[in-house]
Amino acid sequence: MSTETQSESGISGDDGLESAHEANRRIRRLLFGCAAVTVATTVAIFLVLFDNAASYFFGARVSEILFAGDAFERTVTFIEFFTGTRWAPDHSTPAHGVLPIVWGTLAITIGAGLVSIPIGTATALYLSEYASTETRNRLKPILEVLAGIPTIVYGYFAVSFLTPVVVDGIARHLVDPVGRGVHAVGTALPGSVEIRNAEVHFGDAVVAAGESMIGITVGRYSMLGGILVVGVMTIPMVSSISEDAMQAVPDELRNGAYALGATKYQVSTRIVLPAAVSGIFASYILALSRAIGETMAVTLGAGFNANLTANPFAEIMTMTAYLVSMARGTSAVGTVEYQSLFAVGLLLFLMTLTMNLLNDRLKQRFQEVYR
Amino acid sequence: MSSNMTDTPDETLIETGFEVEADRTHEQTDTEAILQSENLSVNYGDEQALDDVTIEIPENRVTAIIGPSGCGKSTFLRSINRMNDRIRSCAVDGELYFHGKNVYDDDVDPVALRRKIGQVFQAPNPFPKSIYDNVAYGLRIQGRDDEVDLDEAVERALRGAALWDEVSHQLDSSGLDLSGGQQQRLCIARAIATDPEVLLMDEPTSALDPVAASKIEDLIDELVEKYTVVIVTHNMQQAARISDKTAVFLTGGELVEYDDTATVFENPADSRVEDYITGKFG
User: What is the mean pLDDT of each run of 10 residues along chain B (282 residues)?
Assistant: First the structure.
């Protein structure tokens, strides 16, 4: 075929098609560039964290060690970091055991999961299988609004209601209904004891929390308060995504089961739940990842005191709470406590990354079984 | 019979009429009615789906329900096992007796009713579970979980649905891995595992290829020895081949003709039915 025939046929490269092809390539490059931004950001964050974290452990950043050949002087050993049980990098006698704040994060995450997973799943089952269409259409938007409330608002909800009313109530009426040991509990909760005695109200509690945020009063924080606030916060996440997964289960399956004489409960638990399991698990993982990374609400709920304790009424500190407490800006750049931020940040990054990978694995596995 | 499988409602039909199987025509001694409806009307909101239907369905016979789309065939079927309860806008008026008991009485538990009246749906709907668990589902929800007992019941049901020889070596594999025809027989096995008295079939072969469909038809022939079968079908040849009685519904949910299959197809009383089965409308 000669070039001339190609020109006549209108498909040769000389005419309009060439520019169309060029435009296509430009758009493709533009879209790729946008996609690359997120990838580059992730990589950059990881590198910055890693580089700074290195100076925490090795006394110099990776870049300094590599290019400037700086002194290789250990400041914090891995053994101290991973096995030490006291975390106080900014203390006059500093300690660098990360366990208390890792424990804080894990306790909040597991505890919040114990709150949000059962309640969220039950809510999803109710909405998907039991509620009438009208009820569902009315309730679902409310759940989604709950999911959109800024986390700092949840934090104040914890400070003004969950801790002084719910946690305090649990301590007084459930754990120690006779009232003998309340002081023991109360000492772990000095703030809430004050609130209780003085009978202060909503606004006062907020003021008190404000004071504690700038470090004057310690207390009125508890592991349980943190667990409850993060738990409540992640319920909509579990229920909304789980409900979507349940709604996606074909109605033919429900009909098949009902026609066999299954009750609503049997259809829900033995047909819908197993068929929707991959979506439901995804919602759990998402909620747990959120709990790990949650900052403001958990800080105002659980506090800033890095206790390695199992007492749910004690104040604890999560990794994110440590990061946010350092954000007050009292540590000079380059100090060990400044660098500790990056070590903790890197560890947190790795934890959420693990959760995401786990999520992918679980999804794949259940999709294989259930299509 | 399977050689007679044809999906061509063409001139031959109109000219020669339908062939009703010889062995069916002499079986016409009516058994006792197991299901009976009296002035049964069903409405979906303002729309009437069934209009004053009165019918008696004999035990251990195949009763076919035919009629054009939207004539209320499936609605009638669903009103027998109260699957209509699942549709919120659905209102039922009149009576439907199962063994002389009105299933719409207040003291009737639809869950218990459906354990006596099984249903097979238009598209095969196996659960995303193993073949074994599919068949055992109905038994397990009734609280039967003795393993030996279940094993026996599952085998009996799969044999009853003519599926055992094909799947006995792969009971643990997913029901979804089977072909469409096998899936539908799995659904039949699932329905008969709990030993119901009536099997409702809502166009059970319409999603299947002709070979798979003819297997199901053969199976219905066998099932009727133990069960009463009520089958909704779009396919008039199928109704003529497999049923003892045929009910013809026409648009508006009206039952216009109900008689022995041979009579309905060879000598219908209502001229509209004649028009319908000879293909003049519908």
Answer: 44 49 53 88 90 92 91 92 89 92 91 93 92 94 89 93 92 92 94 93 90 90 92 91 92 89 89 83 53
Q: In chain A, what residues touch B133 (CB-CB under 8 Å)?
A: none
B44 touches chain A (CB under 8 A): no
Question: Which residues in B lie closer than 8 A to residue A266 (C-beta atoms)?
Answer: 141
Q: Helix A319-326 and helix A99-125: axis angle, to 10°? A: 120
pLDDT at residue A253, rounded to an integer: 93
Q: pLDDT by residue (tens digit) across A103-121?
A: 999 999 999 999 999 999 9
- pLDDT of A166-213, one tens digit each? 877 776 666 655 544 433 333 334 444 343 333 333 333 333 333 333
Helix axes B180-193, B131-140, angle to 10 degrees: 20
| Average pLDDT over all residues of chain A | 79
pLDDT tens for B199-252 read 999 999 988 888 889 989 999 998 999 999 999 998 888 999 999 999 999 888
Third-level CATH fold of B58-75+109-277: Rossmann fold (3.40.50)
Tell me, letter by letter, the H, E, C secondary structure of chain B: CHHHCCCCCCHHHHHHCCCCCHHHHCCCCCCCEEEEEEEEEEEECCEEEEEEEEEEEECCCEEEEECCCCCCHHHHHHHHCCHHHHCCCEEEEEEEEECCEECCCCCCCHHHHHHHEEEECCCCCCCCCEHHHHHHHHHHCCCCCCHHHHHHHHHHHHHHCCCHHHHHHHCCCEHHHCCHHHHHHHHHHHHHHCCCCEEEEECCCCCCCHHHHHHHHHHHHHHCCCCEEEEECCCHHHHHHHCCEEEEEECCCEEEEEEEHHHHHHCCCCHHHHHHHCCCCC
List, as ranges, residues 193-212 from B with C-beta within 8 Å of A. 194
Rounded to whole angstroms, how far apart are CA atoms A285 and A302? Answer: 22
Average pLDDT over residues A32-42: 93
Domain layout of chain A by residue ranges: 3-75, 82-370
Task: Report the alpha-carbon angle A158-A159-A163, nearest 5.
Answer: 70
B23 CA: distance to closest CA in chain A (Å): 32
Whole-angstrom distance, CA of residue A235 vs CA of residue A156: 18
Separation between Cα atoms, residue B227 and residue B119, nearest integer Å: 12
Q: Mark which residues 51-80 of B lie under 8 Å from A by CB.
A: none
Half-sphere exposure of A127 (CA within 13 A, CB side): 25
Predicted ipTM of the assembly: 0.86
Q: Chain A residue with minimal CA distance to B199?
A: A259
Residue A48: Cβ-neighbour burial (10 angstroms; 0-12, 13-18, 19+): middle
At A366, list the tokens: 């259940």
CATH class of residue range A82-370: mainly alpha
Domain definitions of chain B by residue range: 58-75+109-277
> Using CB atoms, which residue from A261, A370, A371 is nearest to B115?
A261
